[in-house]
Structures are given as C-alpha cells and as structure tokens.
Hints:
Elements: E1 2-12, E2 16-17, E3 20-21, H1 22-32, E4 38-42, E5 45-47, E6 53-55, E7 65-72, H2 74-87, E8 92-100
Antiparallel strand pairs: 1-7, 1-8, 2-3, 4-7, 5-6
Amino acid sequence: MKTGSQLTFYTLRSRRHNGEYISNWLPKLAQQAGIHGVTVADATKGIGHDGAWHSASFFELTDQPIEIIMIAENASCDKLFVLLEAEKPNLFYTKTAIEYGTI
C-alpha cells in the first residue's frame, strides 16, 4: 500500500497548449515529473466553469469534455505542479489524498 494523490484535470477535447492538444501534452508533462499512470477519459457532456453546457455531438467532437486522471506519489505531483506553473496552461483540477496499491 502507498499513499499519494489523485489528480484529475478537466478540459475539452479541442483545447490546446502551445499548439498541442492538452490531452496529449499533459500526459507527456506528467511523465517528465515521474508520473507514469495517466488515464484520459471521454465524457459525454458537462457544465464548464463558465456555466455553459459542453458535449460531444454526432457531427462534432471538439466540445467534448475530457478528464485526465493521474495517481502518483506526492513528490511526483509536486514536480508536476512546478512544471505546470512554468507553463501556465489555465487548467481546472482536483487533487485528492488517496491510498493505492495492487492486490
């Protein structure tokens, strides 16, 4: 058993940072911080911080909400946030203390 944090970042499929999709860029940044377990999950719809509905439609996926979920030791999470502070990507996130392991 280990203790650490679960980080969940919320964004849209179409969002980019320095020309690269956030859903591709953020997992690479996490690897630089020593985080190797990252899941990108598609959501069908959600309400953004601006109060607007966002959803994937049959014809258009750019407004589709996604979650980027990471589980890591706190030291790796701290390294990631140092990298994020330097990049300033304007991402909403949650950070939850967890216990994790493999059975």
